[in-house]
Design a protein that fits this description.
The chain is mainly alpha-helical and 104 residues long. It has one domain: Winged helix-like DNA-binding domain superfamily/Winged helix DNA-binding domain (Arc Repressor Mutant, subunit A), CATH 1.10.10.10. A hairpin with a 6-residue loop joins strand 3 and strand 4. The longest helix has 11 residues. It binds a DNA duplex (13 and 13 nucleotides) through helix 2, helix 3 and strand 2.
Amino acid sequence: MPQQPVGFVDAVLAVVAEIPPGQVATYGDVAAVLGSRGARAVGQVMARYGSDVPWWRVVRAGGRPPAGHAEAARPRYEAEGVPMRATADDDGYRIDLAACRWRP
DNA sequence: TCGCTGACATCCA
DNA sequence: CTGGATGCCAGCG
């Protein structure tokens, strides 16, 4: 285990990269793994560096996809086999965390 | 150094 | 269930 002196950004990317296909984790869970409660900070990292990690596997509490990216994440969940339920929300769907929530 | 922003979480009405 | 308000954390100007 090479390093521990890694920036918060690298830590977030590492956790997201460890999420297995077909499963998802919430921003709060990722922050908890890092030992922080900055769920928002995690979202910041995704917005800037999430391009290199399966950001679609990181969702908000309640099983909602990232705000403004629901359309881009929906096909990913279908490809991964993540169970989701259609809703009347702006996102159009919701993820069943009870069946695919990833636990570190 | 200070203040604002943001792909959030949780609580209450 | 929905909506509004508050709190937390890290990055950037």
